[in-house]
Design brief:
Elements: E1 5-9, H1 13-25, E2 30-35, H2 47-52, H3 67-72, E3 75-79, E4 83-87, E5 92-95, E6 100-102, E7 105-108, E8 112-114, E9 127-129, H4 133-143, E10 148-152, H5 156-167, E11 171-175, H6 188-200, E12 204-206, E13 211-215, E14 222-225, E15 230-232, E16 235-238, E17 242-244, H7 247-251, E18 260-261, E19 273-275, E20 280-281, H8 289-303, E21 317-321, E22 324-330, E23 341-347, E24 352-359, E25 362-369, H9 375-384, H10 388-397
Parallel strand pairs: 1-2, 1-7, 2-3, 7-19, 9-16, 10-11, 10-16, 11-12, 18-20
Antiparallel strand pairs: 4-5, 5-6, 8-17, 13-14, 14-15, 21-22, 22-25, 23-24, 24-25
Helix pairs in contact: 1-8
Length: about 400
C-alpha cells in the first residue's frame, strides 16, 4: 500500500506544527512541507524586535528547527518555492515552475499579508510593512541610515516597532486611529497611564489620527494626516494589522469568509483539505502565534488520520517596550451593557498600574503595567472567577 501523501503549504507557526503533528500521528506518511521563504522556520513574533537588534537572529530559539531535523523526521522540505494553485479535484498543488505536487491530504497554512490602507504605499522607497525576516532585515538596514521615522498603527506590534526604532536612536512618531492607546488591551485609565510612559521615552503619539498620504515622490519624506497635519520623517513603517491570505483557497472553490472557514477539526469545506493559522477562520480565535501553533497541530493530526479537536481559549496580551511591561487578560470591561466593579491601584513614580474587573462579584479580567511577575497567578484567578474579597489580597500584594 502506498503511504498517505500529506502536503503542507506554509512553514511558519501553523505549517511547521502541522508537519510535526502529522509525523507523530502517522510514522509512515509521505510528508512534504513547502515554504515560499528561503529561510528555515523562525519565530515570527521576534521580527519587530529584530528591527532594533541584529542579535535576535543569533538566539538559539529564533530558528524553530535545525536543517537536519527535517531529514531525521523524513519530511521533505521545499524552501524558496511558491505554490501558485491548489486543485482539490486533481488532489494536487502547482508550483511557480509548473511542477505538480500530488496529495491525499492538504494543510493550507499560508498565513496573512500586512494591511496597508494606502494603495501603492509600499512601492515607495523607505516605506515598509514587516511580515517576513527579509522585511525586518530591510527595515533594520534602512533604520541605520535614518534618524526620524513614523509608525502607522499603535497596536502591540506597532509599539514594538516604535521601541525597536527608538533603540536605533530614532525620533519616532506613532499614528493611532483610536482615541486612546491600546483600547483592546487597556481600560481608559490604563491607557492614559501607559501613554505617559510612552511619551516619557520621547515617542510622539498622535491619537484619533488617520493617514491620508505618504509625502515624497519616490522616497518617503513624511506623512500627511487627514486633518491636514504634515509629519516629516525619513522612513515609514505600517503596522495596522494583517489580512488572511485566502486568494488560492477561494480560487480553488474552498469556502472563504474573512479567512478560510474551518470546523473544530480544522477541516475546510472540501473534505481532506485543512487550514490553520492566520489564513484560517475559527470563531473567536485571534491571529496570534500560539493559537496558530495549536490549530496547526490539530490540522496535521487529522490530515494524518487522527481525530483531534481544536478548543478555543483566551489569549492574554503581553508587551515589553520602553522599559516597562504590560499584561492584559480576560474581560476588562469592554461590554457597554454590563455593570463592572473595578479595583485599581496606581503608583506613577514606580510605574505600576493594576486594574481588576468583576461581574456579579467574580473576577473576569485584569491589567498589569510595570511589574507583571504575578501575571500567571492573575490568569489562574481569572479562570477560577475568584471573589472580590480574594482578589483584594492579590491587589494588596502587587
Amino acid at each position: 500500500m502506498e503511504p498517505l501523501r500529506i502536503v503542507v503549504v506554509g512553514a511558519s507557526a501553523a505549517g511547521l506544527s502541522a508537519a510535526q503533528e502529522a509525523r507523530k500521528t502517522n510514522p509512515h506518511a509521505a510528508i512534504t512541507l513547502i515554504s515560499e521563504e528561503r529561510h528555515l522556520p523562525y519565530h515570527r513574533p521576534s521580527l519587530t524586535e529584530r528591527i532594533g537588534d541584529d542579535s535576535v537572529e543569533m538566539r538559539p530559539t529564533f530558528y524553530l528547527q535545525k536543517e537536519s531535523w527535517f531529514s531525521e523526521q523524513k519530511i521533505e522540505f521545499l524552501r524558496g518555492v511558491r505554490v501558485t494553485k491548489i486543485d482539490p479535484s486533481a488532489q494536487a498543488v502547482f508550483l511557480a515552475d509548473g511542477e505538480r505536487v500530488p496529495f491525499d491530504r492538504l494543510v493550507i497554512a499560508v498565513g496573512a499579508v500586512p494591511f496597508v490602507p494606502l494603495a501603492g504605499a509600499l512601492a515607495k522607497e523607505r516605506v515598509f510593512a514587516v511580515r517576513t525576516l527579509d522585511d525586518a532585515r530591510r527595515v533594520a538596514q534602512c533604520a541605520l541610515q535614518c534618524r526620524e521615522s513614523i509608525v502607522v498603527g499603535g497596536g502591540l506590534l506597532g509599539l514594538e516597532a516604535a521601541n525597536a526604532l527608538l533603540k536605533r536612536s530614532h525620533r519616532v512618531h506613532i499614528i493611532e486611529l483610536a482615541d486612546r492607546m491600546l483600547p483592546m488591551q487597556l481600560d481608559p485609565e490604563g491607557s492614559l497611564f501607559f501613554h505617559r510612559i510612552v511619551e516619557k521615552n520621547g515617542i510622539v503619539v498622535h491619537l484619533s489620527a488617520q493617514t491620508d498620504q505618504i509625502l515624497g515622490e519616490e522616497r518617503a519624506m513624511g506623512i500627511l494626516l487627514k486633518d491636514g497635519t504634515e509629519l516629516s520623517a525619513e522612513m515609514v513603517v505600517f503596522s495596522v494589522g494583517v489580512r488572511a491570505n485566502t486568494a488560492m483557497a477561494k480560487e480553488a472553490g474552498i469556502a472563504v469568509n474573512r479567512g478560510i472557514v474551518v470546523n473544530e477539526r480544522m477541516e475546510t469545506s472540501v473534505p481532506g483539505v485543512f487550514a490553520a493559522g492566520d489564513c484560517a477562520e475559527f470563531p473567536g480565535v485571534p491571529q496570534l502565534w500560539m493559537p496558530a501553533v495549536k490549530e496547526g497541530a490539530v490540522a496535521g493530526a487529522n490530515a494524518a488520520g487522527g481525530m483531534a479537536v481544536f478548543r478555543s481559549e483566551a489569549y492574554p496580551a503581553v508587551l515589553r517596550v520602553f522599559g516597562t511591561q504590560l499584561y492584559s487578560a480576560g474581560d476588562i470591561g469592554r461590554d457597554p451593557h454590563t455593570m463592572y466593579d473595578i479595583l485599581r491601584a496606581a503608583d506613577e513614580s514606580a510605574g505600576r498600574y493594576t486594574a481588576l474587573f468583576f461581574r456579579e462579584g467574580r473576577l473576569t479580567g485584569g491589567i498589569l503595567i510595570g511589574d507583571i511577575k504575578k501575571a500567571g497567578a492573575l490568569t489562574k484567578e481569572i479562570a477560577a472567577g475568584v471573589t472580590k474579597e480574594d482578589a483584594l489580597v492579590f491587589l494588596e500584594e502587587t
